[in-house]
Amino acid sequence: MAVSLNGTHHHALVHGYSHHHGEPIAPLWSGTMNSENRLYYADNLEILRLLCEDVSIAGNVRLVYIDPPYSTGGFFQTRDFQSAYSDHLRGDEYLDFMKHRLALLYDLLASDGSCFIHLDSTMVFHVKVLMDTIFGASNFKGMITRQKCKPKNYTRTTFGNISDYILFYGKSPTSIWHRSYYEWTDEKMYKEYPYIDEKTGKRHKRVPVHAPGTRNGKTGEEWRGMMPPQGKHWQYTPDKLEEMDKRGEIYWSSNGNPRRKVFFEDSKGIPVQDIWSDCIDIENQNTISTGYPTEKNPLILQRIIEACSNKGDIVLDCFAGSGTTLEVASNLERRWIGVDVSETAITTILKRFGHGTKPLGDFTAKKVEENTSLFEATDNHIAINKQHRIVRDFTLFSQPSYLPVFQTLLHQLDQHE
Ligand SMILES: C[S@@+](CC[C@H](N)C(=O)[O-])C[C@H]1O[C@@H](n2cnc3c(N)ncnc32)[C@H](O)[C@@H]1O
In the chain, N or C terminus with fewer CB closer than 10 Å? Predict the structure, then answer.
């Protein structure tokens, strides 16, 4: 049974009603009692304004990721030709649209929160300038270049465009940060850490013990009768170098030059840099998808959510699309708030929460059967991703008159109780 929504236990969720075409946005359905996650079917401007008045949310959002329209002038359809959304705002109109939303997102963020904005080259520089005024240029933490698709045969008179961009801002210098790492492959490990320690058998690399620049203090003094090379200083004081040598951490070359051993076992992995070429979009790979246009690779969200939030934190995506952010946040045990103004987006999210994603382009039962290791074909030929975790711990908010549109999908979620 879905939780009855007469509004009584939702006082913390809806702080006043908004009026969208005269009808208030209200909680329509909840999958569990006291669910703190929220999915809104509405224009995000009015929802962000509402959330700013909600004391349980304003100033408590740890992470915002948005993937708004890119001002391409295009119109987007799902893989089965349903209209999803239009991306028609251009120039100043687009910037005005973004400005109001970004200012509200800034207010919603916690002081140690972070904001990621996914864009392509059309507007990324304009939005960067906007963000510098709203968040402060000193809170700009970087721009990720993401490879969005495989190289293609480009017919235009320019280089093939395979990248898009993610702007990264902290609300303050104290924003949460957990460094992310790629796992070592054997090949990379052998290349980067080629040596084995004779005594301990430990794999390591050898790096200089000096660094550029002269120093007047101890690191510029003699060690073992040697001065640092000209124009350089020791990276450690001679005392410290002595201790390191005693511990077997210094390698002496045949002509008596010291180098420091850096052991593979102390490495946490390969730190992720700001070019991401391992998360090409789903629709560009032969893999599983909701069929929603511009659906992003969940790995992008996993990396961002793990880097800039902790379990239990609130993650907000007010351009939710197919719900990639919401599903990943849910799997990573974060609380979440999602908003989208497209009925197709909300429908896609509800299907995704119930069934997971489908093999790309495989809409026939026959194809699904070929994929049975990952998918289960049911009587009505809906492919259910067996690895999928049902998401029903949320409340759906919308104008009440839309309830019939979503009823069947909500009913399916109820079946999973
Ligand atoms: C690029 S798509 C997001 C795709 C999403 N990241 C995913 O992985 O599926 C942009 C979304 O923003 C939504 N959108 C555009 N304007 C909006 C508005 N004013 N309020 C709420 N959502 C909006 C569109 O309906 C569309 O679903």
Answer: N
